[in-house]
Structure formats: structure tokens, C-alpha cells
Amino acid sequence: MLAAVRSGAVLGVEAFDVTVEVDCTRGLPQWTIVGMAAGSVKEARERVASALANAGFDLPPRRITVNLAPADVAKTGTAFDLPIAVAVLVAFEIIAAERVRDMVFLGELGLDGSIRPVRGALPVARRLRVTRSSATLVLPRANVGEASLARGLPISAPTSVAELVEWLRAGELPRAQPAPVRREPADAADFADVVGQTAAKRALEIAAAGGHNVLLIGPPGAGKTMLARRLPSILPPLNEEEVLEVTAVHSIAGLLGESATVPGRPFRAPHHSVSTAGLVGGGSSPRPGEVSLAHHGVLFLDELLEFPRHALEALRQPLEDGRVVIARAAATIAYPARFALVAAMNPCPCGFAGDATRVCICGEGEIQRYRSRLSGPLLDRIDLHLTLSPVPLRDLGAAVGAEGSSLVRERVIRARAAQAARYGGAGHVNARAKNARLLATMVPDARLLLESAGTTLSLSARAFHRVARVARTIADLGGATSVGAVHVAEALRYRPRQAEAPITQNRAL
């Protein structure tokens, strides 16, 4: 007998419909799975057969053919175990076909018949909500939290195949209750912990308000990592659409666990030994990389110049376009990657060039080679460049009453509200504004200063407009409707001067 049930799969971050067809005929007992199935999908024949047997379903020996349609799109993962099992039970007339006609199934099966969590449940739920909102999504209990973000979609979550069959025979599937949404942790790192570094905290506030990228340069112990880890604490909370996008990416990567959503804006800090595929995504079975896992959050690259150069160069596209496109022979996959980059580096190999208290032992050539690992085009895509000096030890215990993250976040939220009103929607920030919109709000004196400084500093067209974006953000933080010369002057402080030689003072002879 022929049977068909509905399922879904994910390509990139978008889901598509899959029909699982099963044909049981007389012949030598064997399972055949077709439809561009990857190895993990073909292994389903062993899992499903054992799961059904251990769940108490004694199936007669038959030749079973499983087709995953559309057959010209690659299928990966273990989410087809449950729909295959249900289709087999329908084909053997253990379940009536009309019982599953308006249902969509996802789930991995254990050999004991239990239903285990899978990746990508949220994208499938979102697509189902749009295309077939009356259908019931049947999936593992651990995936209910994320799937329930697709509001209004009927969801059922049996714990095993046996329980599912019992519900289907009874004619009613109980609705699964969504798990409570996790909130941001109360013990998050706070700006009040940072002593001194007023200029650095101001730069990070500008970065948070306008969605800008930051490069922190300083010797070990200057506080680069401490500052970077506190940037998420001053970013606005995720809105509803951003929560869905971030949760979808983390669901595809299998990082949600039992959480319904990501607790706050992502903060990703990969080690400098990360591969290019690990950083931007890819692999034989493409998965999101660190840049996509940092979507709508912060990507922190500590010890920037220790990263492989080819991995750093791969950051150019996501920094410019806000997404990563991975081309393969079978398909082209796009992952979102709209993040704020915070990079930290030492001024030289030993780390002490320019330090007033410690001696640098690096030669001029060593420093030049060290800094040349960071290409000009990548450096040009970073809006704020800041050099830090260590805080004197005598000041560490004396400083009190530093401004906390909650106060800074309030200013950031007000600045982002002004940008949303200007650009017509939440999430639109100055870092991604059109060039014409930026220059239109700049007074003549400010534009003249910017053009003059651009010539003096040999700014590229990209750097010119990035300074304009930073100036617009500074104006928004001050509540100004137009960009003045004072805003441009402050923005220019965060650009590196091309004519500057590497810091070489205080070097050992």
C-alpha cells in the first residue's frame, strides 16, 4: 500500500515542504530511501525499523521504498525518522490515512521508540504558520519551546511512537504547552565594573547606538576583553522579529538545548584557531558559522592578528552585506550575519609598544610584519579605532560610582528610536544607512570639515561615509536633528591616520 505524510526541511535558514512517501510491496524484505538523502537520512531505515519493533508493532516482511519529495533537493539530518515511521504505519494500515492528513511530523527516533529533539524546528514552524496555519505540527517535546514562537500554530509533542499511535487512534492529539521564555541573565557583566577607560566606554556606546564595528588596540591588561564582554549589556533588547531570527539560526546549529529562545543578544568569541568554515559557515554539510551565530549580537575577535588571514578576509562580505552566501554544487545557501564586530589586538608581537611602564623588544620590521596581517580593505570596514593604555594600579581601587550599563542602555535605546523613526523601522541603524540620507542631515560646516579631513587623512570613499555614519550616531546620542562640525570632529578621532608610523617608543636598545 502507498502512504504519504507531510514533513519539512531547512535550507539555510528557510524551510521548505517535504512529502514522505512510503510504498510497501511484496518482495525481498529491505528498506530503500531515495530523494537525495544524505547518510544520516539513509540511516533512518535502521532506527525506524528498530523503533517500531521495540514499540510493539510487529510488521510483516515487505519491500519498503521511501521517497523524500522534492527529490532534487538534498536532505540531511534525522528529522525524517518520525514521518517515515508514521508513513510506514499508515502503509501497513495500523494508522488510518485520514488521521494524519492535516499534520506535519518532525523528530528523530531512538531505538526504543522514543522521540528525540532535532535541529531547525522553528524555521519549519514559521513556514507552516504561513502556508498551512490549520495544520498540527507534531514534534519532540524538547522542541516545543522554539516552535511555539510561531504564534497560533497547533503543536503536539508525544514522547514516543507508541504514545503518538495511541493518540491518533483516539482521534485527538493533546496540545503541547509552550515553555516559558527565558529572560536575559540578571548577573550579566556591567559597565560599572570598568575602572577608567572613559574614551573606550564612549566609543562602545557609539558602537551600540549605531551598530558600528570597533577595533581596540592596546597592551595586555589594558581592559580590551573586559570592555568587549560588556557591550551586550548596553545593547537594546531583541525585538520580536529579531528573537525569531536569532532563535532560528541557533536552532539550525543545534545550540538551543531545552531553551525556548536565546536569553539575550548573542555574544560569540571564537578562539583564534578557528577555521574559515567555523568562522563564516560552510563545511561538507553547510552549517552556520560564528558570524551567523552572532546575528543581531556581538562577534568578539580577541587577539585579532593571531587569526588566519584567509579567515579574516572572509569577513569582508558579512561586514558589508550582513549575510554569508555559501555556494555548493547542489545549492547556494545564505545565512544572516548582521552583527557588531569588536576586535582586539596588541600593538606589536610582544604587546608593549607604546607602554609607558614596560619595554618593547620588537624591531621596526617585526611590528610592520605583525600589523600587515590585517589588510587595508578589512581595516576600512571598521568604523571606530581606539588605542587603550592600562589603568594605573593606584586607580583600580580608588574609582567608585562608575556609570552602570542600565543608564548607558537608556541613551542607546533613545538613539536607536531616533534612527528607527528616520529610516522607517526598528532595527535600521546608521551603520547601514544609505549614503545620501547621511549627507542630507549634515550642516555645510560639518560637510566641509569632513571633506577637508578626508583629503588630509587619505580616506577612501567607504571610510568617508563611515565617518559620516559615526557622526550621525554621535548626533543621535546628543539628541541633535542635524550633524554638526562637533559631531564630525569627534567621529574623526576614531579613524586611524594613514601617515602614522607604528608606535615604537620605549623600545629596548
Distance between the termini: 87 Å
Number of helices: 21
The radius of gyration over CA amounts to 28 Å
Give the overall pLDDT as a whole number: 88
Strand content: 5-15%
Structural class: alpha/beta
- Strand runs, count: 16
- Given the C-alpha coordinates, what overall shape results? elongated
Strand order of the largest sheet: 11-12-15-10-16
Helix content: 25-40%
- Major beta-sheet overview: 5 strands, parallel
Sequence stretches where pLDDT stays below 50 over 5 or more residues: 499-509
Features:
509 residues, alpha/beta, 5-stranded parallel beta sheet, 4-stranded mixed beta sheet, 21 helices, 36% helix, disordered C terminus
Descriptive account of the structure:
This protein is an alpha/beta fold and 509 residues long. The protein is built from 21 helices and 16 strands. A five-stranded parallel β-sheet has the order 11-12-15-10-16. A four-stranded mixed β-sheet has the order 1-2-4-3. Helix 7 packs parallel to helix 17, helix 7 packs across helix 20 and helix 19 runs parallel beside helix 21. The termini are far apart. The C terminus is likely disordered.
List the helices and strands and how they pair.
Elements: E1 2-11, E2 14-25, E3 30-34, H1 39-42, H2 44-54, E4 63-69, H3 81-91, E5 103-105, E6 108-109, E7 115-116, H4 121-131, E8 136-138, H5 144-147, E9 155-156, H6 161-170, H7 198-210, E10 214-217, H8 224-228, H9 240-253, E11 267-268, H10 276-280, H11 290-293, E12 298-301, H12 309-313, H13 316-321, E13 323-327, E14 332-336, E15 340-345, H14 364-371, H15 376-380, E16 384-387, H16 393-396, H17 405-423, H18 435-440, H19 444-456, H20 461-477, H21 485-492
Parallel strand pairs: 3-4, 5-8, 8-9, 10-15, 10-16, 11-12, 12-15
Antiparallel strand pairs: 1-2, 2-4, 6-7, 13-14
